[in-house]
Amino acid sequence: MKRYARRTGRVIVLDGWDRVLLMRFAVVSGEGEGFAWLTPGGGVRWWERAKAAAAREVGEEVGLAVKASGLRAVAFTSGQADLGFAAGLFRDDFFVCRVAGHVVDTRRHTELEKRNFAEARWWSVDELLATEDVVYPYGLGELVGAIVKGDLPEAPVELPWHL
Known about the structure:
Blueprint: E1 6-14, E2 20-29, E3 32-38, E4 41-43, H1 50-62, E5 72-82, E6 87-98, H2 111-116, E7 117-123, H3 125-130, H4 140-148, E8 157-158
Parallel strand pairs: 1-6, 5-8
Antiparallel strand pairs: 1-4, 2-3, 2-7, 5-6
């Protein structure tokens, strides 16, 4: 079993208009500083499974209450990174969740999230595929495009690492 410096559970939240919810955060990496759009989610605690962490984190980051049992694993990505608070091998697991709609509530953000959060918005597949903004994970637009057409992967697909 691999030992990860950090694992995250992330949720691809799709609304009734087939848009995905992304959050814009300040990102600092070996490549410099900037902003990136991310799916809601965050760190897996040592006693949690990735799906449970994803459900907890989507509640904390955007105020959306979901049950872990209602999430379906669709993708993962893994690679080396140094984010200051953790360095080494990282893994992000992505789960999909459908909602009719949702108004983002960031009141439960941690201090780190409050300092780095810039905005949240809903993106169409066309917008994702056309943007020149940085969106993590790489390949999200293609994955979301397949999901909204009903082509959910039978097993989680591996997406390219992003740092």
